[in-house]
């Protein structure tokens, strides 16, 4: 274990705290996963991309991380979908778990350690509820079981909402079976055709909140290091998880609560009614997983990420710069190195590593980390322009590659084949300019011909026309050797 200075913003208490794990070299982390009844949109993947990075960073610091990410595979939305499609809820949920896995894997990030499903833990959920009833934290009433929020003193400690404030101005479902209108359901009866399980309270199914408390306890134990999820889950879902778990085990449930913020589209919330939902798979197919991950990590995880054409184009440009430098670096033959530069660049990279580490250790400040990355790219480009392939650049490029392998691996970025990825970015840029490669090549042929014929007026016009479209040509005395897109 390395000593570390990691600080994480804890939603419980709302301040940055030094991270310390319960077990010496192990971190127990539970993150709320998707309800599986449809393909997921880009906003749903901010969590998976961010928590993958968080896990990688903890591993980099020397921890073994147990990362549990659940599937909610029984829920009213799943039941509605199964009715619409005349399928069983299991058919619906299994289908969308598979689709989710395809999307997740297409992001080329590491899978969580475990991905439990609610329906495979019904016994654990029933046991958990029985424990709460025994402690008088829950009560049954006509086939339902409710959690009694009056029995839990800490209710509201995560969200800062007090039970009495909640009641005022809150649309509370009228339910005469509840002792307090704010009590929430742990178990509810299933109607005739609805899916359900036998329980001490009759045929029914679990409420949503209880599944996470029960599965987390079963797999990781009653006390964990980090509980994560989207900011929209903070209340009531996570508040209720705390109430359930802490009432049942009389200890703090999770030491850290980490919430990633949401993704908006052009400053608007993504919603079905606005019709601005982008499915993650469509975005990845139209652009790439690399662009998607880069966008997500370029904004601090606690800020709203505003998805729009501007950020997509900026990201394409940024990745173009990074991959062009990485490609050039990999082409440098650094077999013979002049020892004179060793010391200078060892110091330079030690310093840059300290900088990037301190950004990440400061509550995962990825925009700061990206600024360090661009500093190094700038330095590399300066060296290649000024010094060509001198010993200096050879030595620099070795460290440069090592740096990008290490931090790229942790961020889940910069692992693409460098040449192929630049080609795909070129294609995207051309697509956004609505120009085809064939068009450019035909113009180059036409221009080469004009130059041969000494028609310099025509040759200049073609060059200028292409320039106006943002296409720059590189010539040797006889012909055009290459072209590139000005960014
Ligand atoms: Zn949950």
Features:
single chain; 487 residues; alpha/beta; Rossmann fold; four-stranded parallel sheet; four-stranded antiparallel sheet; 16 helices; binds zinc ion
Give a quick rundown of the structure.
With 487 residues, this protein is of the alpha/beta class.
Structure report:
There is one protein chain. The chain is α/β, with parallel strands linked by helices. The chain has three domains: 7-260, 3-Layer(aba) Sandwich (Rossmann fold); 309-426, Anticodon-binding domain of a subclass of class I aminoacyl-tRNA synthetases (Four Helix Bundle (Hemerythrin (Met), subunit A)); 435-485, no CATH class. Helix content is 49%, strand content 14%. The chain is built from 16 helices and 15 strands. The strands form five sheets. The chain has a four-stranded parallel β-sheet, with helices on both faces. β11 and β12 (268-269) form a beta hairpin. α11 packs parallel to α13 (391-411) and α15 (437-452) packs antiparallel against α16 (456-468). The chain is elongated, with a radius of gyration of 28 Å. It starts with 6 loop residues before the first strand and ends with a strand. Zinc ion binds at residues 32, 212, 237.
CATH topological fold name of the largest domain: Rossmann fold
CATH architecture label of the largest domain: 3-Layer(aba) Sandwich
Main sheet summary: 4 strands, parallel
What would you report as the Rg, rounded to the nearest angstrom? 28 Å
The number of domains is 3
**Poorly predicted regions:** none
* Cα distance spanning the termini: 44 Å
Instruction: Identify the CATH homologous superfamily of the largest domain.
Output: HUPs
Beta-strand percent range: 5-15%
Q: Any ligands, ions or cofactors bound here, and which?
A: zinc ion
Query: What share of residues is helical?
Result: 40-55%
SSE-based structural type: alpha/beta
């Amino acid at each position: 274990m390395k000593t570390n200075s990691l600080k994480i913003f804890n939603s419980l208490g709302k301040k940055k705290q030094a991270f310390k794990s319960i077990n010496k070299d192990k971190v127990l982390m539970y993150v709320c996963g998707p309800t599986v009844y449809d393909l997921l949109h880009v906003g749903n993947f901010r969590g998976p991309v961010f928590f993958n990075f968080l896990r990688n960073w903890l591993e980099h610091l020397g921890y073994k991380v147990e990362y549990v990410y659940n599937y909610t595979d029984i829920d009213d939305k799943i039941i509605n979908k199964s009715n619409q499609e005349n399928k069983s809820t299991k058919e619906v949920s299994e289908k969308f778990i598979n689709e989710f896995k395809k999307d997740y894997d297409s992001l080329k990030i590491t899978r969580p350690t475990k991905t439990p499903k609610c329906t495979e833990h019904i016994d654990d959920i029933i046991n958990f509820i029985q424990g709460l009833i025994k402690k008088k934290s829950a009560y049954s009433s006509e086939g339902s079981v409710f959690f009694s929020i009056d029995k839990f003193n800490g209710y509201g400690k995560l969200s800062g909402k007090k039970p009495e404030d909640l009641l005022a101005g809150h649309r509370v479902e009228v339910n005469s079976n509840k002792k307090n209108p704010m009590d929430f359901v742990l178990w509810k009866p299933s109607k005739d055709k609805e899916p359900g399980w036998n329980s001490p309270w009759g045929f029914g199914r679990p409420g949503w909140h209880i599944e996470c408390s029960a599965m987390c306890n079963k797999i990781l134990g009653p006390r964990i290091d980090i509980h994560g999820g989207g900011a929209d889950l903070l209340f009531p879902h996570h508040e209720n998880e705390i109430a359930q778990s802490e009432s049942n085990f009389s200890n703090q449930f999770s030491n850290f609560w980490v919430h990633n913020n949401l993704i908006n589209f052009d400053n608007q919330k993504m919603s079905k009614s606005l019709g601005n939902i982008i499915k993650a798979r469509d975005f990845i197919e139209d652009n790439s997983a690399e662009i998607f991950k880069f966008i997500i990590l370029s904004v601090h995880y606690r800020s709203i990420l505003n998805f729009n054409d501007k950020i997509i184009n900026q990201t394409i440009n940024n990745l173009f710069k990074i991959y062009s430098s990485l490609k050039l670096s990999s082409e440098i033959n650094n077999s013979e190195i002049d020892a004179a530069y060793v010391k200078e660049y060892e110091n330079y990279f030690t310093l840059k590593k300290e900088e990037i580490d301190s950004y990440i250790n400061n509550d995962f400040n990825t925009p700061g980390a990206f600024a360090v990355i661009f500093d190094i790219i700038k330095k590399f480009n300066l060296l290649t322009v000024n010094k060509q392939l001198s010993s200096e650049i050879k030595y620099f490029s070795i460290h440069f590659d090592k740096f990008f392998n290490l931090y790229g691996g942790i961020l889940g970025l910069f692992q693409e084949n460098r040449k192929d990825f630049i080609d795909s970015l070129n294609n995207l840029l051309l697509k956004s300019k609505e120009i085809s490669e064939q068009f450019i090549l035909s113009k180059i042929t036409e221009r080469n011909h004009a130059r041969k014929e000494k028609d310099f007026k025509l040759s200049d016009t073609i060059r200028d026309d292409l320039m106006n479209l943002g296409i720059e040509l590189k010539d040797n005395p006889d012909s055009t050797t290459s072209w590139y897109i000005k960014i």
